[in-house]
Predict the 3D structure of the following.
Amino acid sequence: MTKDKRKGPDKKRAETIDGATGKPDHTPRRIDLSSLKDIRLELAAVYRKMDGGEIESQDGTRRAYVLKTIHDVIVSAELERRIQDLEERQGLPGTRSLPNAAHTH
């Protein structure tokens, strides 16, 4: 395993090799990040890549920050949904959705 010292957009990405043909597969990696479990698994993968020297610590830290931000959005959306459900069940007068909320009354 060799580390690429180039920085920025010209840095070459690791290639995936097609097991059937032995040729590079240029299909971008698609990661599902729609649940907290997905985020946890990807954070663990980023950590392992940093620990193994596959990615630079600075790059791993940036990726972890973005994953943490996605985590926070998922948690906030779930809490918002639960609060709205509770308010609707209680029939609380004057309750309203948060600005730009997907759920409307």
User: Anything to note?
Assistant: Strands lie at 16-17, 24-25. The CA atoms of residues 80 and 98 lie 8 Å apart. The first strand starts at residue 16 and ends at 17.
